[in-house]
């Protein structure tokens, strides 16, 4: 056991997304000296421009029945909400095979309870964080709508609502007229919706900046616009982090770089299966008659989030490699889906040069990686939350902090093992 006191023990956190900020938050409260390294400036990572959902309702992992077949169905569509670009790449093909094999009812039933526990823990922690650092990030605890354009989709979501009862979630089923009463300012064309009342939403960019400023004031050292190139190793420990801005040393290394995790893991001879799923968003600053509830448009796999007079639309899951190229056609598809559900919403097609993109880190089973790898005793990884980064970031940060500080974990994390795909079978 490491005998260095927490007061003098140092930690390097690699990655300034929501996971990195949250683990730095909890570690600093435990007395650790923190250096946070990020390849950008915090504002240009996936956590910054997402939809801001805090969703214990999303207990079904992304790897679920029908997902792959839907992606193949939209293979040639330039505006589809789900797209898989075919490519001859060993890691991608291995990830695809694992994803396909995990997309079964058996695996989903096995994994959903662990994901639900993580999300419920994080939901509670976000309230504590808001109370601690001040709610300057527009948190609203009014729930989230699962909007269904067709009766078939509505009936399917009603079954999800029924299944959610085993996780003690509070839901309300709304028919067309009841739903319109919840959104009196905007004409809807929606068959019905499920309101998950335990969900909440925040402005993710404001949250990131609030956390950054809090951590700076708490003494966290930021090393921004810095790329990690390699690591110095000694037997079973990492001794130094080598970057394009110099070399940094610490007692512990926490790696939370989102979709770039496999690249850094490879430098530590650790295999991590993960693909970046590209998402798009655009934010309107002054919507005259705005909606009240954040929502996921289930039939079209996109989302919408209001913050007073601002409105963000977003979606897609595009697997096209580790790139941040913008496809205006994807946003066009999102826009037309929004207008289909909300014909009374007065918004224009987003300009192509102002579309935001981010790469969501997706694992082969839809569960994140949280924990230590087999080889390195002073390294911990956290990431792979797909669309649930904001929803699970606080819990992930607390768990990683407890791992580093050798405290009791708030939940069992066996399902999130870093090493769970090391074997050839699932």
From TrEMBL:
<dbReference type="Pfam" id="PF01266">
    <property type="entry name" value="DAO"/>
</dbReference>
<feature type="domain" description="FAD dependent oxidoreductase">
    <location>
        <begin position="11"/>
        <end position="401"/>
    </location>
</feature>
<protein>
    <submittedName>
        <fullName>FAD-dependent oxidoreductase</fullName>
    </submittedName>
</protein>
<dbReference type="GO" id="GO:0005737">
    <property type="term" value="C:cytoplasm"/>
</dbReference>
<dbReference type="InterPro" id="IPR036188">
    <property type="entry name" value="FAD/NAD-bd_sf"/>
</dbReference>
<dbReference type="InterPro" id="IPR006076">
    <property type="entry name" value="FAD-dep_OxRdtase"/>
</dbReference>
């Amino acid at each position: 056991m490491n005998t260095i006191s927490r007061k003098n023990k140092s930690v390097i956190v690699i990655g300034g997304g929501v996971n990195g900020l949250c683990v730095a938050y909890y570690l600093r409260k435990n007395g650790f000296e923190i250096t946070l390294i990020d390849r950008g400036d915090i504002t240009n990572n996936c956590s910054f421009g997402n939809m801001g959902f805090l969703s214990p309702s999303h207990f079904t992992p992304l790897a679920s029945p029908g997902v792959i077949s839907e992606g193949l169905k939209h293979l040639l569509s330039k505006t589809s909400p789900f797209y898989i670009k075919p490519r001859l790449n060993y890691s991608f093909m291995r990830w695809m095979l694992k994803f396909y094999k995990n997309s079964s009812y058996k695996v989903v039933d096995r994994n959903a309870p662990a994901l639900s526990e993580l999300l419920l823990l994080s939901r509670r922690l976000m309230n504590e964080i808001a109370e601690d650092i001040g709610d300057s990030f527009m948190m609203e605890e009014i729930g989230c709508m699962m909007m269904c354009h067709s009766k078939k989709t509505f009936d399917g979501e009603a079954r999800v609502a029924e299944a959610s009862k085993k996780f003690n979630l509070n839901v309300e089923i709304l028919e067309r007229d009841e739903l319109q009463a919840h959104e009196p300012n905007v004409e809807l064309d929606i068959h019905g919706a499920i309101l998950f009342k335990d969900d909440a939403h925040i402005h993710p960019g404001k949250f990131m900046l609030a956390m950054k400023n809090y951590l700076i004031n708490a003494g966290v050292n930021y090393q921004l616009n810095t790329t990690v190139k390699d690591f110095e190793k000694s037997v079973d420990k990492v001794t130094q982090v080598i970057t394009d801005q110099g070399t940094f040393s610490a007692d512990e290394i926490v790696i939370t770089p989102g979709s770039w995790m496999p690249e850094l893991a490879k430098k530590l001879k650790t295999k991590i299966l993960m693909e970046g799923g590209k998402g798009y968003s655009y934010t309107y600053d002054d919507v005259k008659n705005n909606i009240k509830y954040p929502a996921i448009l289930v039939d079209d796999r996109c989302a919408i989030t209001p913050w007073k007079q601002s409105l963000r639309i977003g979606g897609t899951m595009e697997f096209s490699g580790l790139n941040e190229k913008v496809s205006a056609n994807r946003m066009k598809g999102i826009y037309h889906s929004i207008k289909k559900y909300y014909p009374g919403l007065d918004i224009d097609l987003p300009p192509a040069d102002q579309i935001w993109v981010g790469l969501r880190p997706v694992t082969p089973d839809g569960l994140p990686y949280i924990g230590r790898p087999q080889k390195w005793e002073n390294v911990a990884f956290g990431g792979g939350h797909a669309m649930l980064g904001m929803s699970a970031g606080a819990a992930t940060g607390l768990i990683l902090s407890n791992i580093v500080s050798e405290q009791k974990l708030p939940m069992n994390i066996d399902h999130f093992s870093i090493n769970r795909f090391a074997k050839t079978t699932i």
